[in-house]
Amino acid sequence: MELTAEIAAIRGGGGDPARLVGEFRRTALFVPLAVGDDGSHDGLMSAVTGGIRWFYAFTDERALARFAVARADADRSWEYLSILGARLTDAVIPMVDGPAGVAVNVADEDGSMFFPPVSGIVPDAYAVDIDPAGAA
After folding, report:
1. For residues 82 and 129, what is the distance between their CA atoms, to the nearest angstrom?
2. Which of 7, 15, 100, 112 could be joined to 96 by an S-S link, Cβ 3.0–4.6 Å?
3. What are φ and ψ of residue 132, in 5° steps?
């Protein structure tokens, strides 16, 4: 099953959270590159809300295009990195100073999903629900 179908199943009140996370980890996601004031690339596009850095990720170019339109920024070329969800959580998130998660298809009101910085999604050392001293 593909990630968008798993998201729909969870949002519809069914689905299996473990299967959803598995599909997320196996899916090649499109992560837009942030653009600095001078037009240079400035890492991966993200936003901080509630003390958590959320990386924007999209299941296809159409979902990324809807995001560009929602931001009223569709008149420019959007460069992106194609990266597996597992690589995003296991390699990129540990490089962030503070808690970080992934927001998938955020411009799709009925098709978005957040993958927060918790155990089972991000490496335990970066999960906010695990005590760094070892007690959960």
Report:
1. 28
2. 100
3. -60, -20
